[in-house]
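Holo prediction — magnesium ion.
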Amino acid sequence: MSGAPKHLEILRELEKKVLWLATWMIHNANHLRENADGLKVGGHQASSASLATIMTALYFDVLKPEDRVAVKPHASPIFHAIQYLLGKQTRGKMENFRGYKGAQSYPSRTKDADDVDFSTGSVGLGVAQTLFSSLVQDYVRAHGWGAARREGRMIALVGDAELDEGNIFEAMLEGWKQGLRNCWWVIDYNRQSLDAVVREGLWARYENLFKAFGWDVVIVKYGALQEAAFREPGGAKLKEWIDSCPNPLYSALVFSGGAAWRKRLLDEIGDQGDVTALIEKRSDEELAQLMNNLGGHDLTAMRNAFHAVDHDRPVCFICYTVKGFGLPLAGHKDNHAGLMTPAQMQTFRAAMKVREGHEWDRFEGLSAPESELENFLANVPFAQGGPRRLASPQIGVPDEIRLAIQPKMSTQAGFGLLLNEIGKQESELAKRIVTTSPDVTVSTNLGAWVNRRKIFGREAAPDTFKSERIPSTFTWEFSPQGQHIELGIAEMNLFILLSALGLSHSINGERLLPIGTLYDPFIARGLDALNYACYQDARFIVTATPSGITLAPEGGAHQSIAQPLIGMAQDGLAAFEPAFVDELAAILPWSLAYMQKEGEGEASERNWLRDETGGSTYFRLSTRPIDQIAREMTPELKQGIVDGGYWLRKPGPNAQVVVAYMGAVAKEAIEAVGMMGEDRRDVGLLAITSADRLNAGWTAAQRARERGLVHARSLIERLLADVPPHCGIVTVLDGHPATLGWLGAVHGHRVRSLGVEHFGQTGSLEALYRHYGIDADAIVAAAQAIAPGRPIRYLRQV
Ligand SMILES: Cc1ncc(C[n+]2csc(CCOP(=O)(O)OP(=O)(O)O)c2C)c(N)n1
Ligand SMILES: [Mg+2]
């Protein structure tokens, strides 16, 4: 660190500039909106100002290029202002803050152009992401990769109310288990959330919590002015008063200003000797300055705190700040969405010495010579590392993974076998795969893979059962070369870890191919984290098993209904629910390649499905063994499976009914078609492997046609093209019926959609399929209702 007074002076100037730019950016955007559509959106002025000093200290002084930062959502304007000063953000994007393709309200890896490390916005997620990114950095290095790059610190700028989010504590627990290093959480302790002022004394709970998990805790409470005043006669009294002042009162006084401070202090401690003189010798303005001089607004205090860290243990900095510091909104409990009025803006502008029309000038209003400022910015350590988005070559994936498919098998067992087959090889693909599971590794069938590839641990640890010679199917051995990361039960952690692993190519320059497994219903438990992982374009496979009511006797509470719809609706995630293991064997290699793609490609069907741009994949699998079909995997069949569907039995020209099924109910669908054969002509059986991709292809093809690509035709349009118009379609899956309900809209066929709308009943599989109406009888009954004709003979009483 450079301790030269000049250095500090320039940092002070930049701190001012950053606050001005961020405040102006928000004011300007709202002003434009107000004129355009009358809609004012809440500002982040107060929330941003809170972090202006801390971020100035970090970005312009402390951070190294290899460090990565998750910026608190509402500090996005400060981040953009800093990047603007560093020449990495354009004025156009700043002027267009919150506008179409402008700088984003919350820092976004995918939508912002100025090198956001981690997207934030859903509070708590960015914080945990830094922890898991640090574990991933260790994983990468333990496997012998990335040694040429310096180890970075993973840093989160955390709002104090953000710590209400439980996922942060789930992550801390996991970090402790995994030997977390190189992780800093900087808490903006402004004691305000969105609605109000936070509970008294929270910092002490945090301190204990963090220490209990092995973190260092650094409390930055007082700024240099306060520290100096405490050394004056009477200073100890003042300190005592500050320490015992309740949060809401401190905030209210910050808002009210110097005269209010004076009155309050004199009323409460004014008769206590020296402290009176201490107060009296300061003007109102000086007194306000002193009382507002909390550690988090003191560049020296913050720099000292950061530079003093000389180890790689995780550190939590609790920094006292004032929300809205430096602005007239400072401290007011309603300031979260507060915006400065034009009159307040004028006063602020005058104080910042910014002339009309020069608001965006980088050095407007600063007193240091431009050349010095330019020189300083050109040498900021953080900005010396070249592009922050790293690249890593794609790993080759074979077209097929051969495995011996038994006559009767479940897709979950097939998944375990497929991974085991990959694990047998010494290929680059096998090396780059990393699996993870929240305490359901064995029950989701990863056991064989883990036996081969071991569990990752920074320190090796043998399996005690093995060393004690107690027979066990699974070897539970930890090694720095291990390729499975075993997590505790928290599903949020699973998805945040997948997010961190799935960005390794860009963050660490070393590609990993992450595969996470969990029980299907518990996707809901980690859904927001899954959404954010996809939002920041992390690449992974998530395998959910068992699923639906098909898990039958395992328990009603574990049945999942909505997940197929989640799979369809989740942006960035291609969802599959294959019925047969050979289908999964076709989808898995495709998914491993898909997760590595980032091209643009020509306008084509592949492109409508986003095959060129790539993404993550979700497999919804089952533990139900069903009869497998012995067949040759032709290229056409494989393409159909990957694109979402194919005819298992093509309907004839006189077909009255088509049964379209997805997943484990294949058996019932096949049985129902057999039962109807004598009474309905040419019944068709449509196998659907991905409602998501079929639907996405259909929507995209329609859009493409509307935009002039007249020949655009999606797979489902082609599949249903020859189905006679009078033919009815019965759809069935172990999930919400709406998943396939749209099939009738493709060419206007009548549809009856079967599925599960209520859950919770336990029982045998037969009993439950009957109870919920997805057994063969229910399919036949639906067919009879939708495709009138003579009564179907094999229809049993339902
Ligand atoms: C998961 C989630 N819930 C709610 C919100 C809405 N929200 C945005 S900021 C905020 C309060 C933030 O308080 P704090 O973290 O202390 O930051 P400050 O505003 O004090 O800077 C809330 C509730 C959100 N962004 N994400
Ligand atoms: Mg706060």
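READOUT: The first strand starts at residue 68 and ends at 70.
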